What does this fold into?
Amino acid sequence: MKSLYIHIPFCNRICTYCDFTKVLIKNQPVDEYIDALIMELESLEHKNFETIYVGGGTPTALSPKQLERLLSFIAERFTVSTEYTFEANPDEVTTEKLDLLKNYGVNRVSLGVQSFNDEILKVLNRSHNFDDIFKSINHLEKIGLTNYSMDLMYNLPGETMNDIETSLKYVEQLKPKHISWYSLIIEPHTVFYNQIKKGALKIADDNVEAEKYERVMEGLGELGYPQYEISNFATSEFESAHNKTYWLNEHYYGTGAGAHGYVGNQRYYNIKPVPHYIKSMNENNTVVKETISLTEVEQIEEEMFLGLRMTEGVLKERFKDRYGMSIDEYYKDELNYLKDKKWIRDDGINVSLTEGGRMVGNEVFMSFLKST
Ligand code: SF4
It folds into this structure.
């Protein structure tokens, strides 16, 4: 087992677009949650990982005492050889918290910047503002945690092409090691979703979104950030090793309320919300989870969806090693169709999306479905 994900489902504010498993931290049983989480972590068979990723929610919403408890447990119990990431919000990375992260071996931070426009940050209900972004990056650099990912979003309400240019300008100035730049997706059960339903909010159409995405790819390319996944950009030494576990369709543990994992041929989904998770651990000493066994056909489909997200695409040799057959035979008709459309590139070693294919990613992914 290469990777471990740990979920901290607490936030100091709830963002208007967010559909993750999270809850406002105020009055929550945070200490009991950490007890339960430690119990689940103790039950894992593996102790040595290449990557550990602590995400949320917002892990930096924990108090220094709570953070230290979690960090010291992780340090005593596990080893991590390559990449140990903590997600953080710019207004929450105090020197005290950063010292703790650094001292307990965290070597990468994923910083939720989202936008450099204060008006847009307000519409998103983010807890930070423009100044916080610079302060937090200053703190990170001072303490020597210079391997950070700047997490941005585009296609946000009220956003213009100028905002994209401004973000590119700050990327050039701040030089983060890694950039994730995701398009806003309107998910059910979010404030944005309800506002759109009531006609109180409008989102730009697909053409504008495509124009912004093209500018993001082009601008980051000009600044020396190769695109290694649909929404992720970095030189090869700073690509996210943890996230590549997902895209390479490899196994990982997911721990905490609502977290998911992939072990053997099973994907599992831990119980949520927080009180159910704590109860499950306290009463049964184990976490209640929904488990889905994947057939080989489904595993292959996932291999394609996930692998094609990466610029390098799906390695033919790896496909053959895993499934005992060649991708060219298994997907003969589909690959011919997609090559005719110029949505897929096949260099004999990898099968990957072309620029055009990236713009119609979902349509390409659907072509590989055989199980439905
Ligand atoms: S901080 Fe992150 S997890 Fe929390 S509400 Fe905002 S987007 Fe969701």
Remarks:
- The mean pLDDT is 96.
- Residues 299-367 form a domain with the Arc Repressor Mutant, subunit A fold (CATH 1.10.10).
- The pocket of iron/sulfur cluster is lined by residues 11, 14-15, 18, 20, 22, 56-58, 89, 112 (CB under 6 Å).
- The first helix runs from residue 30 to 42.
